[in-house]
Amino acid sequence: MSSPLTRPNPIPRRPLRLGVLGAARIASRSLIPAAQTAGDVLVAVAARDPRRARDYATEHGFLRAENDYAALLRSPDIEAIYVPLVNSEHAEWAARALDAGKHVLVEKPIAANSAQLESLAARASGSGLVLAEAFHYAMHPLWLRVHEVLASGELGRIQSVTIRSEIPAPDDADPRWSLDLAGGSVMDVGCYALHAAENLGSHFGGSPRLIAATALGRPEDAEVDRSLTANLAFPDGTPVRITSSMDAADMEFSLRIVGSAGVLEAPDFVLPQLDDRLLIGPLDAPRTEHLGTVPSFDYQLDAFRAAVRGHAAFPVSVAESVRTLALIDAAYRAAGLAPRPGDPVGARV
Q1: Predicted structure pTM score
Q2: Cα 112 versus chain centre, distance
Q3: Low-confidence ranges of the chain (pLDDT < 50)
Q4: Would you state the pLDDT for residue 346?
């Protein structure tokens, strides 16, 4: 593993030429600074309001703004697209980008439900293009170290896994509260916890199975979860408990794995740039490892570039994304809610 204190650069890199669909806040915190650090080219951005796109392009150093999404996708000087739109639009615009011959990095969750993602995956299959879901934390040295510790057996027989993904409530008008826009706490933050459980499955015999879930809906719309708690089990019987909330007192993205010989704790596995500690060892005296505060988004863009250039597969496979969305759908059903609405994207045009 490369040094956790520096961003890896194992191969000479040809800059990516990037386009962004939507003048989204998340792009200004994730892809844009990562691209600026790496020397990738922010070619163009498009938004529903062309004036907003022009202002965003100027503020963030894009070469230009396009008048609409379709014009951006037609641009011959753009090779890869980032899709940070509302959840309900992820699959549709990822499909259109693929049809335009572009590689695509899509914000999580990559689709509204597993059936929609399966149709998107079929559309990407055989295209020679990269379709990638932006679970950025999975590329950071902290998460790679979690895998190393589990593989080493240092913790003994694993007795429980607990994963919490919680944030304070967004404003009432936030699109994350909209069922039609595929909103809800699991779609915004809980997907990290369920993906983390899926990603760790190789140490426990495979993908976890959803056993039970309970949810609290919003008074304004009971189908939109403000919080959800789920119990799962890996094939070897190891229990997993996840909590998801968009109604918490504070932000928390924590992982705790308890074994017969010790414990592993990550206070912030999703944003290790804010807290890069990993606590490992006996319950009464764990040691602290620091895995580096280089942003996880930087590692993600490096991995996406490597995939686009054909140097390595993107660490989060489409198959893994499908399994994660199946868990999300299962959690909603177990809690008495329906999976988020979203039609299949249809055959490639």
Answers
A1: 0.95
A2: 13
A3: 1-6, 10-11
A4: 77
